[in-house]
Give the backbone structure.
Amino acid sequence: MSHSTNREPIGVIGTGYVGLVTAAGFAELGNDVWCIDIDEAKIEGLKQGRIPIWEPGLAELVERHRGRLHFSTDLADALEHARLLFVAVGTPPTYSGDADLSAVHAVVEAMPASDRHALVMKSTVPVGTGATIKRLFDEQGKGGFRYVSCPEFLKEGSAVEDFLHPDRVVVGDDGDWAGDAVVDLYAPLDAPLVRTDIKSAEMVKLASNAFLATKISFINEIANVCEETGADVVEVAKGMGLDNRIGPKFLQAGIGFGGSCFPKDVTALKQLAGNSGYHFQLLNSVIEVNELQKRRVMAKLEKHLGSLVGKEIALLGLAFKPNTDDMREASSLVLSARLQAAGARVRAYDPVAEEEARKLIPRGVDFKASALEAGEGADAIVLVTEWPEFAELDLGELATAMRGTLVIDGRNFLDAAKVRDAGLFYEGVGRPALKDREPARTA
Ligand SMILES: NC(=O)c1ccc[n+]([C@@H]2O[C@H](COP(=O)([O-])OP(=O)(O)OC[C@H]3O[C@@H](n4cnc5c(N)ncnc54)[C@H](O)[C@@H]3O)[C@@H](O)[C@H]2O)c1
């Protein structure tokens, strides 16, 4: 084994968001990392220094540690150099909402019998997956393979930062060398450690995401009641968030959560409960509220513009949240489809996610090179993703360029007073107190 420090070399299987950030993060801590993926183009690109995802700080980290990061499509390379094989392959939803574990099982199948290796599961999997994999190992005569659950909590948009400064590290294992080795690997990060059994570790991940999603749907429902009663949800959230039992995070009302994790993990937990004979009432509502929240934008547009047939609607931001190009389950996908179904013409601008968006929005949306260009001739603007650059928009110029005056702020991100001062009509989420008395001018 050739490595420059006394840190343990590791393998990472699957070099997507989680795998590549984990690999780069451990390289930063001094580990040699063998990164394996079945996607040959991705591995070829990585070898040449091309980073397949947009994530702040990641390209710099990969570049800085090129000497420690080894990219390959051959699992044998990781098996030869490392004992710990982190699994970070995708676990997308199936049609039923259960997690699709086929990539995880492909990795399990590919493992040889060994007494010196361990799988360390980073992918988000249903509770019981570790037990199933251990049973499969036994059945396949690979009972010496160890198993550790080490769920990942990084957030896209700040993934590198989250890896280096995690709120906690969760290690679920059978109390053997592999669990100890994973704990040692994370030790330099000095994060609170929860060392537990495998099933509890698996549940920590699912329950954490479900709780965060619940907080979002909760504040969105409060916002909807604010719209009926005249309160401003931003003020309400500020007042609630100062209670340290509640906390200020995840209390931003908007047009619903998206992304590659919350929708799928919440549904997977609901399904897991259902499959085990328990009806998870609350999660059903969390999911339903989120779906309805995306659609409320339509009602707001129609309230001001009447029929949307032939109306020009500009979407500002497409990614499911700022600082990422991830378009999976983004609210913009539902919105652009609903708008087109209602006869509107949709133009859109996103500073980073256009390329990803083009893959998921195959036709109908006119992509523009700037927010201002998207606003040119538009009857209404909908702010979908709170990219920092939208706070710097020249609202006067925007007002001149638009055909109408309606600005729907789907993330309560813009300064309402400034929007109004520019002669535009502001409508946020759950903020009726900010509305102009004047109706919006339509085309
Ligand atoms: N993205 C996030 O923010 C995030 C956060 C926490 C946890 N997770 C979880 O981590 C897991 C990975 O998520 P992601 O967003 O990084 O996925 P991703 O789709 O970005 O990456 C998965 C990678 O695995 C590769 N792969 C698939 N099958 C393989 C195989 N048999 N061998 C080797 N490589 C294979 C794919 O080619 C791809 O590069 C999921 O379970 C997800 O739920 C994701």
Notes: The two ends are 69 Å apart (CA to CA). Confidence is low (pLDDT under 50) at residues 436-443. The pocket of nicotinamide-adenine-dinucleotide is lined by residues 13-19, 36-39, 42, 88-91, 103, 106-107, 122-124, 152, 154, 156, 260-261 (CB under 6 Å).
